[in-house]
Specification:
The structure is a homodimer.
Chain A: E1 6-11, H1 20-28, E2 33-38, H2 53-58, E3 63-66, H3 77-88, E4 92-95, H4 105-114, E5 118-120, E6 139-145, H5 152-165, E7 169-173, H6 177-183, H7 197-204, E8 212-216, H8 228-237, E9 242-247, H9 265-279, E10 284-290, H10 297-311, E11 315-316, H11 318-321, H12 324-333
Amino acid sequence: MIQTPYLLFLGDAPDQLAAKVAQGIKDWRPDNAVGQYRMEGCKADLGLTDMDLAQAKAAGAKTLVIGVANRGGVISKEWKKVLVMALEEGFDLASGLHNLLRDEPDLVAVAEATGRVLHDVRVPEVEYPIANGEKRGGKRCLAVGTDCSVGKMYTALAMDREMKERGMKSSFRATGQTGILITGDGVPLDAVVADFMAGSIEWLTPDNDDDHWDMIEGQGSLFHVSYSGVTMALIHGGQPDALILCHEPTRDHMRGLPGYKLPSLEQLRDTALPLAHVANPACQVVGVSVNTQHMSDDEAQSYLAEVETRLGLPATDPFRYGSAKLVDALAAIG
Amino acid sequence: MIQTPYLLFLGDAPDQLAAKVAQGIKDWRPDNAVGQYRMEGCKADLGLTDMDLAQAKAAGAKTLVIGVANRGGVISKEWKKVLVMALEEGFDLASGLHNLLRDEPDLVAVAEATGRVLHDVRVPEVEYPIANGEKRGGKRCLAVGTDCSVGKMYTALAMDREMKERGMKSSFRATGQTGILITGDGVPLDAVVADFMAGSIEWLTPDNDDDHWDMIEGQGSLFHVSYSGVTMALIHGGQPDALILCHEPTRDHMRGLPGYKLPSLEQLRDTALPLAHVANPACQVVGVSVNTQHMSDDEAQSYLAEVETRLGLPATDPFRYGSAKLVDALAAIG
């Protein structure tokens, strides 16, 4: 569990895109973002107050989050100076970089001396149990995709926000590094050992109030041969009551797999639902989330209308047209 | 890769069942078993020549394999004496115990000093790649089960033996600790990190001759909520040409999951085959392997006949009636 709120470290980001983790935190959990820390030459700007470490400390920030990709995959000397100072000033550090904080002896030594915590969110910090399959109270929704990177995290976050605005009980449950940094907690599922994958998702989505929804961040795809095992564990560990089908209609092959075509939404539905019924016989497919970023407004609208007719399910692009339709569908079964 | 042949260490086994790993090695790879090492009070006997370390060394044994479960989950002082001596005598050690050899400082120190290797087959020793899904040469067969522990390993080993006897090209590919100790090589799939599961199976079953069959040891079940992710990774990483359905008809719930019923063979077929087609559109279900240990001969025969009629597939219990029918079915598509 990462202590919030955060000071968002943008370092010497070469452009706005390099700071997309920080952007995600600011977009989805603005209350977690006290300010931004930018070094000389930083080309990213989140529109937050620029703060030095003392100012951020005074403003209540507890953790410095590395919200930017590092160049060349290494933590530079210039970054190191700031990170060491942050530990000395009493901040914990949190990072989703491949280059782990815990692999830097100086950071480890200073963290130890100052009693601060280094969070590498790519690495599990919990000993997860083996899944027991027992029915838990509360409701759960899982986004499943025809492919990886079709908007599953965005869909779950957008629905979670809409549900909170309506006064529904909802928790976004992160299963990847960006989601974990956004919420301060979660399971880095792709780094969990095989035997404990489903158990980690049971742990992440425990017994809850009957009218509470866990909005579980999806990972991979049942149709992506590299990562389908992770998706399977989410479906069985999460024992979802509701599935949202996610799709990007313009993609001509599976991400990273040139020889593989995307399945249809019908194939996704007909594959995912029987598997979900193993863990939860009441599970329903409640809606479709389409990533229409490469379509004109006309194309997007007509594609969504066509999907609604074809599948008999509400369909929207939550980024472009909001997630209200999908939340209506959840509310109808909740 | 564990050096063969082995001296099989039976320690102070309280009964024959405690030595089932050693029994598996002797049954399936007798050429790997030079002799057995029994301590005072050992109640197991494989019918191999009893040897001390010097005799086994002279007979060519290269690795001492712990073929017995340890009492209380710890490596006792009495065992330790033999293991240290074995290292001093020039043996590597191999073990599938939960209590890892590498967690015993004295064994680590002696292994280092003598230049010997400690193999803990529960722990991956290879950095596996992420699966790329590329089509590989050669053919692959995977056993999938309605549940865990229904005879998938036995089925693959029995078919592999039958195929070798017929002069077919075949390799048993181990994915669990017992299988790895039997063959000296394999992937401990349940201990692999999620992102690399499918890639580890691609690594295990590489490009091969067109008429070569990899007989892949199955794990878990698509219908077992604790371990289904592992099974999924086998189906997509293994890109099987042939599936064998495995079943134990008398079980009244899924192993370790009292609330969960076993699926039918039809459900298994209809779930596994479309998923296998993602990685290999030519995949076929070729036969059924039934574990009839809790049925009389009459019951078993009539159950197998009924399955053959119902599914239109050859069905046998390879332990009781041999695996010839299943190998015939493979040969027909090979």
